[in-house]
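Bug #77: duplicate submission created two jobs. Keeping one. Sequence:
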Amino acid sequence: MAPLVDTEDLVDSQEVADILGLSHRNSVSTYLHRYDDFPQPVVERGGGRTRLWMRGDVVRWASARRD
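Kept job's structure:
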C-alpha cells in the first residue's frame, strides 16, 4: 500500500526552485544530477517532464546545505 500524502505538501519544480533560491525551474534537474543526496521526486510522469517533491524533504535538504 502506498503511503498517504497530503497534496498540499507536494511541490513542482518551480516551487522547488523558489525554495532553493534558484532563478529557473530547469536548474532543479541540474541539482538532481549534481547532488547525490538531493531529494528524489515522489511523483514522476511523462519521462520526467512532470515531477513532484515533498516540500519538507526539499526544505530539510536546503537547510542542511546552508549549515
